[in-house]
Design goal:
Order of helices and strands: EEHEHEHEHHHHHEHEHH
CATH superfamily: Alpha/Beta hydrolase fold, catalytic domain
Shape: globular
Strand content: 15-25%
Largest sheet: 7 strands, mixed
Strand order of the largest sheet: 1-3-2-4-5-6-7
CATH topology: Rossmann fold
Number of domains: 1
Structural class: alpha/beta
CATH class: Alpha Beta
Radius of gyration: 17 Å
Helix content: 40-55%
Number of strands: 7
Distance between the termini: 35 Å
Length: 266
């Protein structure tokens, strides 16, 4: 099947300055960055799109939700916004996509920040995704939402923020989850091992130590594979780092992108 044509993504845009592209993960949308985006936009031009099949962006019937298609959408977005190069921040599978973009279009990526992400989808992450899909199909939406909330948040944090759990559940209930489930199928075969040594974009890895979706050991693997990678580990933090730890996430992105802006392009 031929790759589907790029779609025009819905995007939240704020600020002026060097461009930062925020890329959410499976089942998310631009709102995952709400706690940091306004502050990040002080001194930066920030774009937070909804990927195809998520949020307010369309899901083409012929889409495979493959990473080449998703990366093509992001390149088309940068073209529409007249952005030559951007700092790309990817969370979870959005980090998979950020790595794909940096390898397939290296001239468009100024630096990378990978949050709760990895260079390949391992058996553990595949099992989590399969459990979500099976729960949704076999037990229905409420069981699926509860299972996902337990997996993606640090237990003490979500217990103290039940309002967030309610908003996430309500948001998912109103969505067509076809694109999400299709991307989940595509993610199962994601594997850039063997290619990551060619990556030249300055890379920072931010990882929750209590992430039950992407094992924290991937932070060490990325540091060992990508030259010059730095790692920031956050204790008592689950998979949803930008939501659970917005101040630390903001500081990490600001520091890393400003450092990259001060260096000559590689």
């Amino acid at each position: 099947m031929e790759k589907a044509a790029p779609v025009e993504l819905f995007v939240r845009k704020e600020g002026e300055g060097s461009a930062i592209l925020l890329v959410h993960g499976i089942g998310g949308d631009h709102a995952v960055w709400n706690a940091i985006l306004p502050r990040l936009a002080v001194g930066h031009r920030v774009l937070a799109p909804d990927l195809r099949g998520h949020g307010q962006s369309p899901y083409p019937a012929d889409s495979t939700m493959g990473f080449a298609e998703l990366a093509g959408d992001l390149v088309a977005l940068l073209d529409r916004e007249n952005i030559d190069r951007a700092h790309v921040v990817g969370m979870s599978a959005g980090g998979f996509l950020a790595l794909t973009l940096a390898l397939s279009h290296p001239n468009r990526v100024r630096s990378l920040v990978l949050i709760g992400s990895a260079g390949h989808c391992d058996a553990h992450t595949r099992s989590i995704g399969q459990r979500w899909a099976d729960t949704y199909r076999e037990e229905g939406f409420e069981a699926f939402a509860l299972r996902m909330l337990k997996d993606i948040y640090y237990p003490d944090w979500i217990e103290a923020h039940l309002d967030v759990a309610d908003r996430v559940r309500d948001s998912l209930r109103d969505r067509d989850l076809t694109g999400m489930l299709r991307w989940g199928e595509s993610v199962r075969s994601f594997d850039l091992r063997g290619r990551l040594t060619a990556l030249r974009a300055p890379t920072l890895v931010v990882q929750g130590m209590d992430d039950h979706v992407v094992d924290p050991s991937h932070a060490r693997l990325l540091r060992q594979t990508i030259t010059g990678t730095q790692v920031r580990l956050l204790a008592q933090t689950g998979h949803m780092v930008p939501v659970e730890r917005p101040d630390e996430t903001l500081e990490a992105i600001q520091t890393w992108t400003e450092r990259a802006d001060s260096r000559p392009p590689t």
